[in-house]
Amino acid sequence: MAYEHTNKKGTKYYLNSKLVTLRGGKKQTIYYFSRSAGQNSIDKMPEGYKVVENERTGLPVLKKK
User: Fold this and answer.
1) How far is the C-alpha of 29 from the C-alpha of 58, rounded, in Å?
2) Strand, helix or coil at 53?
3) Are 64 and 49 in contact (CB under 8 A)?
4) Which residue ranges make up each domain of the chain?
5) Is 13 helix (H, G, I), strand (E, B) or coil?
6) Which of 14, 20, 41, 56 is exposed most, by the fewest CB atoms within 10 A?
7) CA atoms within 13 A on the CB side of 8
């Protein structure tokens, strides 16, 4: 089951992660929310992060604690 967050407007978002390669060749994991659970969905919140919502749009983002 994918990690789910419901924002203040009642919209459900699912947490996803993806391993990307930066221009310098360094590999980094990025986290993002989407409205549907897909192949990149993860089951739990990564350690050291918390969910914060954009006040205007309600879009959730992960922020380091």
Assistant:
1) 23
2) strand
3) yes
4) 4-64
5) strand
6) 56
7) 10
Question: Residue 31, CB half-sphere, CA atoms under 13 Å: how many?
Answer: 21
- Angle of CA points 65, 14, 44, to nearest 5°: 55
**pLDDT value at position 1?**
85
Spell out the per-residue pLDDT of the chain, length 65, in tens.
Answer: 899 999 999 999 999 999 999 999 999 999 999 999 999 999 999 999 999 999 999 999 999 99
CB count within 10 Å of CB 45 equals 14
Tell me the sheet residues that pair with 15: 33
Buried b / exposed e over 14-44, threshold 16 CB at 10 Å, is bbbeeeeeeeeeeeeeebebeeebeebbbee
CB 28 within 8 A of CB 22: yes
